[in-house]
Structure formats: structure tokens, C-alpha cells
Amino acid sequence: MQLSKFTDYSLRVLIYTAAKHPDKVSITELAEAYDISRNHLVKVVNQLANLGYLDTTRGRGGGVLLGQPAVDIIIGDVIEAVEPGFDMAECFKLGVNHCRLTPVCRLKGIMNDAKTAFLRELSRYTLADVVRQPQSILKALASEKVRR
User: Fold this and answer.
1) Of 18, 49, 76, 101, which sees the most CB atoms within 10 A?
2) Where in the chain does DSSP place strands (E)?
3) Structural domain of residue 78, as residue ranges?
4) C-alpha to C-alpha distance for 9 and 46, rounded to whole angstroms
5) Is the pTM of this model over 0.70?
6) CATH number where 31 lies
């Protein structure tokens, strides 16, 4: 299983924003910190703002802040909200399932149990758990910029 780049970038944006709290961050700053396309991050930030995870302000003095305390942002919830479907196999996709085994196959149930366990485990952690040492995160990102 692999999460989409969008989900990966969403988590990175939240981590960086939490590490910089209470300071605002710009999308350009995020793009430079992770060496990710600014255009991709605009979409990510907009989605996270629509979901209430970020607050954004445009214009001079604008930027991005967490939309709620890091302790209230549950990692499993973020992944579920931004991951474009956890359809692990064709049989999970309503309307396009052409697998002839579906009526007798037990694999779908097993995979669904695995997905549920995966999300349940991630839901044990908040953004605050991930960003316990914000200075270490910022230092790691700064040292990566120097190596490029």
C-alpha cells in the first residue's frame, strides 16, 4: 500500500506548519523547505483549508496557520479526508467491479479489515505527537536545503 503524493504532501504541510507555530508560513516557504512544486502545494493547502486543518490569509502579511490545535488534528482523520479512496482492489470500487470472484471471495473482507486496522492505528496519533520536537524538524529541513 502506498499513500498518494497528495496525502504525503498534506502531512508534510501540516508538520511544517505545526513546527513553525505560531508563525505563519508561506506556500513558497513550504515549497522550498521540501523541494516540492509550489503549484502542487497550492492545491494541498487549499484542500487542507477547506477541511479546516489550516487557516489561510491572502495578501501582504498573509500566510498559512494551523486551523486547529495540533493536539486536535488526528493523523488517521487527515489521511482519510485527503486520500482519494482506499480502494485497495477493483472489488472495492462500486460500479466498476468486474471480478468474477467477488461473490465467493473472502479477500475483500480481509483487506477491509487491514485497512480499518491501518487507519485505527494512525488515529492513535495527533499532529502534536508527530511534531514533539519542532526545532529538530526545522533543523533537518534547513540542513537538507544546504546539501542541495
Assistant:
1) 18
2) 54-57, 63-66
3) 5-147
4) 12
5) yes
6) 1.10.10.10
